[in-house]
Amino acid sequence: MLHFIVTAGGTVEDIDEVRKITNTSTGQLGICLAEEIIKYMEQAGEQDYQIHYIVTSTAIKPDLFNEEMDHVTLYEVTDTKSVLNTINELFDRYTIDYFIHSMAVSDFTANHMIPMKKLAEEIKLKLESTDKEQWLEAIEHTLKNPKAIMDRSRKISSDDDMILALKKTTKIISLLKEKNKELFLVGFKLLKNVSEEELIRTANLLAEKNECDLMLANDLESINQGIHQGILIKNKEVLGKYEGKRNIAKAIVYQMLKNR
Length: 260
Prior knowledge:
alpha/beta
């Protein structure tokens, strides 16, 4: 049996009990990708496959009551950690053949929050007991490890100005080929308001770094204008330029499966 993973939507990282870090990804492209895989496999007369659809809680979900979705299993996730846990579980259970990582995973998650005034006081006290030559190191250490951090398991009061410290999340795409060198990996690069040359150059760097077999480069400016345009790249060669989520999904699935 062939196993596909499609990730979709945008992750949500908790700041406190009610506040979140999120993004504008709807997950609509992921649905198009799943549907196009199903169409391709049906036209090829193949039924022995499963699509593991990892989708964030805020994204649009595929209609699993539709008969065409019999080959789709839904896994709902929230933050980057839950995405990674789900992926690890699937790789442990199955040999994954194709992975389309269209999810907008947050680059950062909340580390801690602290009232601005208290942080300033901590830095002042630290500098008073530190030689001037070591001030930069002392400030950095205090910013990373303040004492008066807030309890983020409940709603944080809005009475004071706050400093929110972020830490980098795990780059999920960088781990995938380590799990299976034979995996066919489709990556995505999103920039905003850059030249086509810069978009392609950056996408090629990401593809090389993460051993992506296909890369879809797109500009947020076109998405915001309601015209989703994508450039499909393989081995640093532009395979085509496509407009609209459906056409982008169709091109990705065709290029992914045509030589299977």
